[in-house]
Amino acid sequence: MMKIVALSAAALVACTNAAALQENFGEGWEDRWVQSTTKEGLGKFVADEAGGIKTSEDAKFYGMSTKFDTFSNEGKKLIVQFRVKHGQNIDCGGGYVKVFPSSDDLAAMDMESYNLMFGPDICGPGTRKVHVIFEYKGKQLQNKKSIACKFDEASHLYTLIVSPDNTYEVQIDGKKEDGGSLYEDFDFLKPKEINNPETSKPADWVDETQIDDPEDTKPEDWVTEKQIVDPEAEQPEDWDEEMDGEWEAPTIDNPEYKGDFKAKRIDNPEYKGEWVHDQVANPEFEEDAAVYDYADFGAVAFDLWQVKSGSTFDNLLITTDEAEMTAAQEEFTKTSEAEAAAKKAEDDAKAKEEEAKKAEAETASEDADEEGDEEGDEGADDEEPKKDEL
Fold first, then answer.
1. 167 C-beta neighbours (distance < 10 Å), count
2. What CATH number is associated with residue 72?
3. Model pLDDT for residues 197-252, shown as the tens digit of each residue
């Protein structure tokens, strides 16, 4: 069994300890996390012997949360980071977390009333994306971009950084995958200007750039008939109208057919250009210079569906300190390298085993061939005297 070394608690304690949450799912993690009661028949998270926790039941919803000291990210960078490993070669299921305002009753917490949702989501080849969703004034704002996630069986570290300059960044394995402006990539604000409701395009406005040439008319000899009666067809001599009905000559493609006539196109002398609706200030627009800012963070949850279980989660970090993020990423690099080395050793061992089996099969086949040749030679010796007798 391949063993993976998870981020150690000691390594995280060595950080500046500004994190709201550092969860490595060590001893007692079951006491820190609460199963949701808002859905029935939820799947069970179990400890992964290689580190972290993993989903254990197929075709199940999972809902589990924990709380931390409430905080606001005003004037600070908000960082959400965690490791996920789809060791089951996931075909359809989530691998994300949801971060919530503080809650007095985690079990009854509405899993759809989160501040933000972040992480990979996979369902077949059509959905392989990193969700970045923010709640704003009662609406969940989806990212306009489609950020690709990893869908192999290795561990990957997902990081979301939300900054006070109203930008965000998504990292995978410590490297920037995408990011940008919260204003541009999400519909936090309504447009500053809208089409003037008092105006509309004039009825006589001409925006057709080209027209048919009125002087280009169809020639009199233009043939539009696609098929004609075959002039060479003759009624068979044995045709009996009483038995066969009235004879009709078959039709053939008309060799003179020229297709539908289309007049040539010319520039429209009446063209006025593309009509542009004039803009006016949007009365519903409200400026917000800090859409990044949330007054209350206090809980985090795994709320997801998986068709095939076996996803491992670990090294969950919620902080405002980049040093803690960097330290965790450095530890992950060691974990990832160890995992890759263990996987290579496992693959090499399997390859050697397959080669040994192949060689053994070839040897057995060669032995069988030699035995058959020997039996054939013995049979030939037995027949020799018969030839002498002849």
1. 17
2. 2.60.120.200
3. 999 999 999 999 999 999 999 999 999 899 999 999 999 989 888 888 999 999 99
